[in-house]
Design brief:
The protein is 24% helix and 29% strand. It has 500 residues and is of the alpha+beta class. About 11% of the residues have low confidence. This is Dihydrolipoyllysine-residue succinyltransferase component of 2-oxoglutarate dehydrogenase complex.
Length: 500
């Protein structure tokens, strides 16, 4: 008998995936629930288990192909030289049936290296009728949020993992009973927020949650889903457009290691306690680990932005017309840093035990504030890119960061980081290293200041620069030299063309 292997449910608003890797080839014996292939979406990685024991037949969708939900991936010849089947495990797209016509709701595949998640929100209560693929709950990991769809239509009979509970990758979340349950409609009734905004379609549950957390109404969000339905990404875009700056400069939640001081009953009644998200916990831990591990020191300088601003104003219209992207300051700073890193390679290196690993390339991290926290997408091989290539990469990575669509691969492997606090009005700061990197450059606000030039006091657009570095590997001379080379390149951009 031939069994079809199809694309499982990928999650709300995800309609297609790319076949990343096949773990089996035609003719291989497979066991039930053994991993056949891995799919990549713009949000998570999904592993596809074998629905039956048997022999791998035809592979219909090869590696690199883009496939839609329920598309045919391959076939399995059931029973022909079947591998011994292990005890059945819950697959993300095909939950095991429980006694009495019930179906267990299991934790879906969380992605490589992610072993646990926190139950963030239940969108359904016990006794609610659910449709197949309707969102039941949302899980939060330290990397991404994962929405859990209903594997079958029925009634939510039991919730075994309450909100706030931490579950592992094989845990059961709840039970759906199929006995006597009327199939729920494919689209739920309009929510109160949708009704208030005049919509006659239901918004995504995760979008409702995100709007409530951000304190914005559905009327202020443009829906891109079917029939104008508001999706989670739409809320992220609306928040980023209206208040990303305020969110990004908000002080990071401290990691409380000492007991709190005494709080009066009156003050306690007016406090609000909110659990840190896993992403914020990860950010806090990494930043604190950086301070505890590296011998971090910061050196400062200032740069006259007159020449860069003049060059940008002269060519920005032609640049945008030819390359389809605006000419900003980040490409100048990226080029200047790449130039300086060649002269001071220890700033582009890292410590591995008792070894120093020098990088003969520059993977530039560009810190970006988003509604959910600070992320650092990486521009790979920035030293080999043109101004236009750098601007396009920064624009695309920034948009994906604000939309919450960055993959882990896009945030790993950086060798040096630039953080631009100036977009939020910061005049001076000491950036924290992004481990295991040994250097990070802090950009700041451009401000007109009186400067003494050739014996005359003139007004110039000035910016303070800050280089935080790991003193275990970078000496003061190297750090100061690096910052001076960046300053020289920006004050006379022609030096970049002449490699001086």
């Amino acid at each position: 008998m031939t069994i079809e292997v199809r694309v499982p449910t990928l999650g709300e608003s995800v309609t297609e995936a790319t076949v990343a890797t096949w773990f089996k080839k035609p003719g291989d014996a497979v066991a039930v629930d053994e991993m056949l292939c891995e799919l990549e979406t713009d949000k998570v990685t999904v592993e596809v288990p074998s629905p039956s024991a048997g022999v791998m037949g035809e592979i219909v969708a090869a590696e690199g192909e883009t496939v839609g939900v329920d598309a045919l991936l391959a076939t399995i010849l059931a029973g022909e030289g079947a591998a011994p089947a292990p005890a059945p495990a819950a697959a993300p797209s095909e939950a095991p049936a429980a006694a009495g016509g019930s179906t267990d709701v299991m934790v879906p595949t969380l992605g490589e290296s992610v072993t646990e998640a926190t139950v963030s929100t239940w969108f359904k209560a016990v006794g609610d009728t659910v449709a197949q693929d309707e969102m039941l709950c949302e899980l939060e990991t330290d990397k991404v949020s994962v929405e859990v769809p209903a594997p079958v239509a029925g009634v939510l009979a039991e919730i075994t993992a309450a909100e706030g509970a931490t579950v592992d990758a094989t845990a059961k979340l709840g039970v759906i009973s199929g006995s006597g349950a009327a199939a729920a409609p494919a689209v739920a009734a309009p929510t109160a927020a949708a009704a208030a905004s005049g919509k006659d379609v239901a918004n995504a549950p995760s979008a409702e949650k995100a709007m409530a957390e951000a304190g914005i109404s559905a009327a202020n969000v443009t829906g891109t889903g079917r029939d104008g339905r508001i999706m989670k990404d739409d809320v992220a875009r609306a928040v980023a457009a209206g208040s990303a700056a305020a969110v990004a400069v908000a002080p990071a939640a401290p990691v409380a290691q000492a007991p709190r001081g005494p709080v009066s009953a009156d003050d306690a009644a007016r406090e609000e306690r909110v659990k840190m998200t896993r992403l914020r916990q990860t950010i806090a831990k990494r930043l604190k680990d950086s301070q505890n591990t590296a011998a971090m020191l910061t050196t400062y300088n200032e740069v006259d932005m007159t020449e860069v601003m003049a060059l940008r104003n002269q060519y920005k219209d032609q640049f945008e017309k030819k390359h389809g992207v605006r000419l900003g300051f980040m490409s100048f700073f990226t080029k200047a840093c790449c130039h300086a890193l060649k002269e001071v390679p220890e700033v582009n290196a890292e410590i591995d035990g008792t070894d120093v690993v020098y990088k003969n390339f520059v993977h530039m991290g560009v810190a970006a504030g988003t509604p959910s926290g600070l992320v650092v997408p990486v521009i790979r091989d920035a030293d080999a890119m043109s101004f236009a290539g750098i601007e396009k990469a920064i624009s695309e990575k920034g948009k994906r960061a604000r939309d919450g669509k960055l993959s882990m691969a896009e945030m790993q492997g950086g060798t040096f980081t630039i953080s631009n606090g100036g977009v939020y009005g910061s005049l001076m700061s000491s950036p924290i290293l992004n481990p295991p990197q040994s250097g990070i450059l802090g950009m700041h606000k451009i401000q007109d200041r009186p400067m003494a030039i050739n014996g005359q006091v003139v007004i110039r657009p000035m910016m303070y620069l800050a280089l935080s570095y790991d003193h275990r590997i970078v000496d003061g001379k190297g750090a100061v030299t690096f910052l001076v080379r960046v300053k020289e390149a920006l004050e006379d951009p022609r030096r970049l063309l002449m490699d001086l």
